[in-house]
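Re-run requested by the PI after the first attempt was lost when the workstation crashed. Everything re-entered from the original request form. Ligand of interest: copper (II) ion.
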Amino acid sequence: MVAFSSSALISAAVAVLYASGAASAPTPSTNELAAVVARAPGVTHTVVVGLGGLRFDPDNVVANIGDIVEYHYLPKNHSVAQSSFGKPCVPINGNAFFSGFMPTAEGQNPNVFTITVNDTNPIWYYCSQTNGNHCQSGMAGVINQNFNSPNTLSAYKAAAALTGTSISPPRIGGGVVKPNPNPLGGF
Ligand SMILES: [Cu+2]
């Protein structure tokens, strides 16, 4: 009788990756494996805004080109706004995405905000709520962080904490506000 442990299964998966040529390094990292697992096209990644306090959950998403990131809003009054890594809590120049504010008394907001991932560059974002200094308190996230770069989410949050205040993009855009497809789903 042969018993497979989870580590044996992972080893087998790694072996398959080698055989397929998908991995070139001798010891693929967990992130590399996650990226391979996430390769199915058109996946929707749910991010819950305000779950567990002033944070996004999950705040670090690995997505493929063509994937959707769908933001669900819990209380209080949050937004999602795009910034650069270098200037936390401030809209990125040009076409920053912005959901607008989603005041939510209880449960989930009836609307969600979705963005489409168009390339593999890191996408940095924050909540621009100034009442309570959400961005400065660490309410920020990233899509496709470069895990070999010093530009980490923790570094972003550390820099965000030192900014005086947040700025919202001038208008809603860069994504789609639409009815929540699962408003009664518990998070
Ligand atoms: Cu917020």
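Saved to the shared folder this time. DSSP finds three helices and eleven strands in the chain.
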